[in-house]
């Protein structure tokens, strides 16, 4: 998901961390049981999960390798599933699915507030672009998007209270939307820009409008969005000039 030059989109690891940071629920599969956890309240589950690297020695010497492998086989496998849903009423509202795979090092309980230690296997990211796999080192190095906890409220506010601005932003789309488009809705917002979903009678596609520069704090979002709106107004004005 990298672009040439300055990056304008999140990395896979950043997107995973952002999905986790904004999650309000998750599905946990362990010991053959599937349970829904709905009380995350937007708190990053990474704060309750300690992810440990997986290795053949597990911190022991070589002489203990076979014993460690037998021990590992008896550790319950755990699967954590997260679904990222667009906050606006677009078609195909599932934006991403994130799955964390590993084995439990300490007992897990839905009701306990204690942290859980997990031997990390891999993180799987599924989006419309395909499936990507991320290791622990990449995941540890990535940080959630600063807008992730606020994105839903910001997008619904834009759509519900300022639909005229969404229409104005279409002036920045190239090539310009055709008459086949029936509506445009904001579908995503991150530190790199805003994404509009253009819905047509048959199908839809997303268009990304990058900010002039990536955000470091949510407080910078107003100025960056205003910069896009100002650019759209200038583009609108230029489009009315005679050839």
What do you see in this structure?
This protein is an alpha+beta fold and 243 residues long. It has two domains: 12-141, Pnp Oxidase, Chain A, CATH 2.30.110; 151-239, PNP-oxidase-like (Split barrel-like, Alpha-Beta Barrel), CATH 3.20.180. 26% of the residues lie in helices and 31% in strands. The protein contains six helices and ten strands, in the order H-E-E-E-H-E-E-E-E-H-H-H-E-E-E-H. It has helices at 12-22, 65-73, 136-141, 151-161, 163-169, 221-239, and strands at residues 26-30, 33-37, 49-52, 77-85, 94-104, 116-127, 130-134, 181-190, 193-200, 204-210. The strands form two sheets. Strands 1, 2, 3, 4, 5, 6 and 7 form a seven-stranded mixed sheet that branches. A hairpin with a 2-residue loop joins strand 1 and strand 2 (33-37). The longest helix is centred in the C-terminal third of the chain and has 19 residues, at 221-239. It is elongated and about 65 Å long. It starts with 11 loop residues before the first helix and ends with a helix. Residues 1-5 and 57-64 have low confidence and may be disordered.
Compute the number of strand runs. Answer: 10
Find the CATH topology of the largest domain. Answer: Pnp Oxidase, Chain A
How far apart, in Å, are the first and last alpha carbons? Answer: 38 Å
The average pLDDT score comes to 86
The biggest beta sheet is recorded as: 7 strands, mixed
Helix content: 25-40%
CATH C-level category of the largest domain: Mainly Beta
CATH arch. level architecture of the largest domain: Roll
> How many distinct folded domains?
2
- Structural class, by secondary structure, is alpha+beta
Q: Shape from CA axes?
A: elongated
Poorly predicted runs of 5 or more residues = 1-5, 57-64
- Which band does the percent of strand residues land in? 25-35%
Instruction: Give the radius of gyration.
Output: 22 Å
Order of helices and strands: HEEEHEEEEHHHEEEH
* Total helical segments: 6
């Amino acid at each position: 998901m990298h672009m040439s030059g300055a990056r304008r989109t999140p990395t896979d690891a950043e997107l995973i961390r952002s999905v986790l940071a904004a999650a309000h629920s998750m599905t946990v599969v362990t010991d053959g049981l599937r349970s829904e956890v709905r009380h995350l309240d937007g708190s990053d589950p990474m704060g309750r999960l300690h992810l440990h690297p997986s290795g053949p020695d597990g911190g022991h010497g070589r002489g203990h390798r076979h014993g460690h492998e037998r021990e590992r086989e008896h550790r319950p496998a755990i699967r954590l599933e997260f679904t990222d849903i667009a906050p606006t009423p677009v078609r195909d509202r599932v934006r991403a699915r994130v799955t964390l795979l590993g084995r439990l090092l300490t007992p897990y309980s839905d009701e306990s507030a204690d942290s859980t230690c997990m031997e990390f296997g891999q993180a799987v990211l599924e989006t419309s672009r395909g499936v990507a796999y991320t290791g622990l080192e990449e995941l540890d190095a990535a940080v959630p998007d600063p807008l992730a906890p606020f994105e839903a409220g910001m997008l619904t506010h834009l759509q519900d209270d300022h639909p005229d601005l969404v229409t104005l932003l279409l002036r920045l789309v190239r090539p310009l939307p055709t008459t086949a488009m029936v509506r445009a809705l904001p579908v995503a917002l991150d530190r790199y820009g805003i994404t509009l979903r253009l819905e047509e009678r048959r199908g839809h596609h997303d268009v990304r409008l990058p900010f002039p520069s990536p955000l470091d704090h949510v407080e910078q979002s107003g100025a960056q969005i205003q910069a896009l709106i100002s650019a759209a107004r200038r583009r609108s004005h230029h489009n009315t000039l005679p050839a």
